[in-house]
């Protein structure tokens, strides 16, 4: 797959999320198959998702680096998924993949979710607040 196709998939995930009020994103092509994505998604309840991905899509979508940080309207961390290697001694068998759950210091096991899964998780948190 070419990186432009992956960029279009990311845009589609965002467009299909009815709770996204505004999205600012930049796409940097770093080669035929590599790219860097950085941006924010602002939701109708005032919460925000900050995201970064460095991806190589030559064979599969291999996210070499990712971080999805979701904060509530008062700027409090709700969660962050990332694969930064700063928790090597934690004993997490999913290392380097992990989730910060509600606090920087609360690190739990996690697989490597894609943006669609993260947006679904956010939708499950925001939607009940709106009804």
What does this structure look like?
The protein is an alpha+beta fold. It has one domain (3-130). It is built from 2 helices and 7 strands. It has helices spanning 3-15, 115-130; strands at residues 20-29, 34-43, 48-56, 62-71, 77-82, 98-101, 107-109. Strands 1-2-3-4-5-6-7 form a 7-stranded antiparallel beta sheet, covered by helices on one side. The longest helix is centred in the last third of the chain and has 16 residues, at 115-130. The model has no long low-confidence stretch (mean pLDDT 90).
Average pLDDT metric: 90
Uncertain ranges: none
For the biggest β-sheet, the strand order reads 1-2-3-4-5-6-7
In terms of DSSP E residues, the strand content is 35-45%
| Structural domain count | 1
Helix-strand topology string: HEEEEEEEH
Shape: globular
- Helix percent reads 10-25%
The tally of helices reads 2
Round the Cα radius of gyration to an integer and report it.
15 Å
List the defining traits of the structure above.
single chain; 131 residues; alpha+beta; seven-stranded antiparallel sheet; 7 strands; 40% strand; globular
Give a topology summary:
Elements: H1 3-15, E1 20-29, E2 34-43, E3 48-56, E4 62-71, E5 77-82, E6 98-101, E7 107-109, H2 115-130
Antiparallel strand pairs: 1-2, 2-3, 3-4, 4-5, 5-6, 6-7
Kindly summarize this structure in a few lines.
The protein is α+β, with helices and mostly antiparallel strands. It has two helices and seven strands; from the N terminus they run H-E-E-E-E-E-E-E-H. A hairpin with a 4-residue loop joins strand 2 and strand 3 (48-56).
């Amino acid at each position: 797959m070419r990186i432009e196709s992956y960029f279009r998939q990311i845009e589609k995930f965002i467009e299909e999320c009815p709770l996204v009020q505004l999205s600012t994103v930049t796409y940097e092509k770093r080669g035929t198959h590599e790219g860097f994505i950085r941006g924010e998604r602002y939701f109708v309840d005032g919460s925000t998702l900050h995201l970064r991905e460095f991806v190589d899509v030559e064979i599969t979508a291999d996210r070499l680096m990712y971080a999805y940080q979701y904060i509530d309207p008062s700027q409090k961390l709700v969660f962050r998924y990332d694969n930064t290697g700063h928790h090597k001694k934690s004993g997490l068998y999913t290392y380097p993949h992990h989730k910060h759950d509600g606090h920087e210091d609360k690190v739990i096991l996690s697989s490597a979710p894609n943006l669609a899964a993260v947006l679904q998780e956010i939708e499950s948190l925001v939607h009940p607040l709106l009804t």
